[in-house]
Specification:
- The termini are far apart.
- Helix 1 links the parallel strand 1 and strand 2.
- The protein has a single domain, classed as Rossmann fold, CATH 3.40.50.
- 40% of the residues are buried.
- It is globular.
- By secondary structure, it is α/β, with parallel strands linked by helices.
- The longest helix is centred in the first third of the chain and has 17 residues.
- Helix content is 43%, strand content 20%.
- A six-stranded parallel sheet has the order 3-2-1-4-5-6.
């Protein structure tokens, strides 16, 4: 019987996953559509990733002018690598890209703001560099919801995976027998 080699996996596994939080900064808060809702989902996601030992990287776009990552999230992620950037795409920032590539994890969970600028350009560049972006749709937003909608559509068509906070956390768990099942279940309630 011939053997079949799988060259692409569709399931997302913890050992092959990292996350990137993009530009959830103080000065953006009053301008982003449903900011409170995406902040809550991002907080849940970060806590779940911490429980599952999925590495998190944080980007801040020009923090001198836009402030740092909002306190609701920085309190949850603790001691992680935070990279300042001026490029819209995180991949175009040499320090961030080097760090992501050195993680040797193919799937990159992307969340933050704005969906149609920094998140989208990062996703497209990850695809161009052979990595699989996974957009956490309920933890991303833009000032205008229409921009967000079109960006999610474009990224999906380009090959990005689009999912939600709860869906990705349970996919990473894989089973109710996982030692962190109760932690994750509590977070999403």
């Amino acid at each position: 019987m011939p053997t079949t080699t799988i060259t692409r996996t569709y399931r997302i596994h913890t050992e092959d996953t990292q996350a990137l939080l993009i530009d959830m900064q103080d000065k953006f808060v009053p301008h982003i559509h449903e900011m409170e809702k995406i902040t809550n989902k991002a907080r849940i996601l970060i806590a779940g990733l911490n429980a599952l030992d999925v590495p998190l990287t944080v980007n801040e776009q020009y923090p001198k002018g836009l402030g740092h990552t909002i306190a609701e999230l920085s309190a949850v992620f603790g001691d992680v690598n935070v990279f300042e950037k001026s490029a819209f795409s995180s991949v175009d920032d040499e320090s961030t890209w080097r760090h992501l590539a050195m993680q040797n994890r193919h799937h990159v969970l992307l969340f933050g703001i704005e969906t149609h600028v920094c998140v989208q350009q990062t996703a497209l560049d990850l695809l161009d560099n052979g990595m699989q972006p996974v957009i956490i749709s309920d933890a991303t937003s833009s000032r205008d919801p229409y921009d967000r909608k079109i960006a999610l559509r474009r990224m999906r068509r380009a090959g990005a995976v689009v999912t939600t906070t709860e869906a990705i956390l349970f996919e990473l768990l894989r089973s109710s027998k996982h030692p962190d099942f109760k932690v994750i279940s509590h977070l999403v309630k």
